[in-house]
Design goal:
By secondary structure, the protein is an all-beta fold. It contains no helices and 17 strands. This is MORN repeat-containing protein 5.
Amino acid sequence: KNCAEGKGKFVHTDGDVYCGQWHNNVAHGMGIYYHQADHQLVTCYAGQWVNDLQHGFGVETWEEGCKYEGEFKDGQKDGLGIYRWADGGSAYHGRWRGNNISGPGAYLSADKREFKGQWKGSMIHGCGIYSWPDGRVYCGQYENDRKSGFGRFTWPDNRRYDGYWLNGKQHGQGRYHHMDGSSVLALWAKGKRVEWIDEPKED
């Protein structure tokens, strides 16, 4: 029985092309795969293959300009990797799992917003620090891309909120610090203060 072995090129009936190393009739080793749709190049993968699947280090590029450089496992982005968006300035550096951003990583947007922390299913999920170019900073917990749990939000003029959040808004007990250093404790609901909390005064 004849099997593809060594180096070679294979053109699929749908127009996709693989050029590279083969072993026992499957892509295995280093190779480049071109994926097309409607006779237009859509994606290109250049890197390591194991048993016909992307496995090891590789670089995947998209026709619109996006690019991933990093680790693959069983045909999916898995491990450490860098993803750059087509806008030319946005990028993610960190962990992937099953084609999704998952684990610790850092994101920098084209407009200089930055997040460093935990991700799950390509969403911010867990603890991290989000900063804006105007000086605002949030340090705390996230759930499904939204501030949820306990966190500290600081404004450039030194105002600060330390407290609980839900779905991206202050919700629960929190302390608001004024510019002059004084602070008040209050209950919040969906981003609005609903009740002051009396605190015992020091003698």
